[in-house]
Amino acid sequence: MKYLILIGDGMGDRPIESLGGLTPLAYAKTPNVDFLAQDGQLGLVQTVPQGLSPGSDVAIMSLMGYDPKGVLTGRGPLEALALNVPLSQNDLAFRLNLVTMEFGEKNIIRNHASGDIPSDEAKGILDTLKEKLPLKIGQAIHQGFSYRNVFVWPNAPDGLADVPPHDNLDKPIDHFLNDPAYRPIAELVRASWEILADHPTNRDRLKRSLPPANSIWLWGQGKAPNVKSYLERWGLKGATVSAVDIIKGLGLATGLAPLKVPGSTGTLNTDYEGKVKTALEALTANDLVLVHLEAPDECSHQGNLQDKIKAIENFDALIVGPIIGGLKKAGYDYRLIVACDHYTPLELRTHSSDPVPFILYDPLARPMETPPPGYSELAAKNTGLFVPDGPALGRLLFGPEKE
Ligand SMILES: [Zn+2]
């Protein structure tokens, strides 16, 4: 048996007036997922447990059949895993952003990404930081991509505050720096200022009117998720196909190999064909493949309704359709889930915790007694099938766990 988890990130939404009260998912032309809904099981699954914030890390861990509660504490450790940084159980892993700070009576983060500083320029900055920051024994900086890097701190103090820089742009951040729960981190942030103030890379960026990387910002910290692998839980070997580091990290934490698709970008213009080809090829040697498309979420954050509809239609026509075709052609027995991880309502331009519509499809299983009209939030609600959490979804897809 082959298993697939196909995820359109952030596809879920609320009714939109200009679409005649339909959601983008209900409005978009999606013949493939509609067929799977009509011929399979359609329902809602609560991917964001109460009390957790609706990030893709949390929601996708649920779609993978896992319980993120008490296990997932930040994106830092997932990104560390994706960079092949080994983590031991007492390591706290942070995201280290290179940011553009405006210094003055009040200190303000003006750009959480240093204007998407290229990795080769970031390398010069990070090399200087590695050399000059007053790091404690065991603390280490690891270069990632662009402004997105990782900082590891073994045996860090408990209860440190987590302050995402993109949520705190253009307002003073001194109260965070002076907060006792952030102070151990703030010491390093402050120390970076003098080191980077006159850095040759920054002088050069300023000359080109680009935002300098004149401060670090540490956030998103957590410990490596300590969970059983798919092999241990269900005897399954698998892989992930995604442009996004936290999904690579989630896969690595659960024993799924991250597969590279050179043209995959996380945007509407990603290499759909490459993703499908990689996923289908991976199935010859694996039992499970997770395919993730970031574009619908990205378009929702940008507030772009037309692009969101296009991204959903691409997910249907360029991911789901060809994968079903490939499975049939290969003659596999298969079961799959199609879902979004969380809503990213256009009216909010950020994530929400609503339960999400999912399809469980097995070509040999019977459809529902009253087949739904298609794949949408409302149709999923109306079937009455409600799955309370990730582990329950995992049992639906994979069956009972090994003893
Ligand atoms: Zn998002």
Care to describe what's here?
By secondary structure, the protein is an alpha/beta fold. It has two domains: 2-71 and 226-398, Alkaline Phosphatase, subunit A, CATH 3.40.720.10; 82-222, no CATH class. Helices cover 36% and strands 19% of the residues. It contains 15 helices and 13 strands. It has helices at 24-27, 31-39, 56-63, 76-82, 119-132, 174-177, 183-197, 200-207, 230-234, 245-254, 272-285, 295-301, 305-330, 377-382, 390-398, and strands at residues 2-8, 41-45, 91-102, 108-111, 140-145, 148-154, 215-222, 238-241, 256-259, 288-293, 334-339, 356-361, 386-387. β8, α10 and β9 (256-259) form a beta-alpha-beta unit. It is globular, with a radius of gyration of 22 Å. The mean pLDDT is 95. Zinc ion (ZN) binds at residues 10, 297, 301, 344, 351.
